[in-house]
Design goal:
Layout lengths: L9 E3 L13 E5 L29 E7 L6 H11 L5 E6 L6 H8 L5 E7 L5 H11 L4 E5 L3 E3 L13 E8 L9 E2 L4 H8 L15 E2 L3 E5 H6 L12 H11 L3 E12 L9 H19 L3 H22 L1 E2 L2 E2 H13 L10
Parallel strand pairs: 2-5, 3-4, 3-6, 4-5, 8-12
Antiparallel strand pairs: 1-2, 6-11, 7-12, 9-10, 13-14
Amino acid sequence: MERAKHHGSRALDVGGARGSPGRPQCTVSSVLGSSAGLGPVNENRRRSTGHEGPVERVSVDVCVVTYNSGRTFPQLVASVEAYMPQGTRILVRDNSPKPGLLDDLERRVSSGVEIHVVGQGDNVGFGRACNELASASDRPWILFLNPDAELLTPLPSTVGADPLCMIGPLVESPSGQTEATFGPDRSMWFELKQRVLRTRVRLDPDRPIDFVSGACFAISRERFLGLGGFDDRYFMYYEDIDLGRRWRGRGGQILIERGWRVRHIGGASANAAPLTALVRSYQSACRYHQRWHVVPQTFKAICVVEAALKLTLALIAGRVGKVDRNTQWGLFKYVIASPWNRVLADD
């Protein structure tokens, strides 16, 4: 795979003349292909958002995988500046098909947060991009955060306290509804209830948690890399469920902090290519169950029934949720055509 073009490092005075009084500078640098430390942080910068940040400090990098995320990324940056400890940096791996993230940041972002672009130019998938970001960081803790998410509260004090604890927030939709971004492992019975019987997930952060969504969670960088990071054979989806299973298998715990809240717009990348996103989700689900449950035929049968039911509803109503009938038809054909005996090869 061709390496991304090196753009070099540069500092940007975003939104005004360089050195203008009262205008914070957004330091954007490119460290493509580097796993070394990312240099000094401006410890004396001032917050311009008017929010009071947390008192406790923990050394952390925010890791963000972007994909055509220019519209939502400024909100993320503003929330990091408002609620993360002073000196926090944002590391970005841009999976967008067209390069130009640095220019987009220059036009849109006005902030005192340091932003480092670790890689861009190739869509390497979510898991592999996250692993690149973790390798490029030199902080003891990392916070993975979706580009279409924004922090609503400060980082909880549990982050940094125990390296064996993976910590996630309560994530809410723009309408304020709590999203199912954590929960039990994906057993065959769970998949049947969700995909065919349409059973509602009961969210209880006080019960044992088997995984937390990659949309937002904090983790010890050393422990994450020691586990091998995300399995990058999952291009997108289910890599967080797989990580949770391996994390717990090594004695780790997963905690949901009720007081830590994040807003997630959701689907910003998937909406651009809905059929591709659905196919990727199906492929990753197949890979997960093939790896952990060794019953690909059972899962394939569940997915065929689900696809047939949704196609029927889409033909009647025109769409199911946000997915129109043409997309549902494309997914149905893909699921039917995929092999029964071995869902995905172990590449």
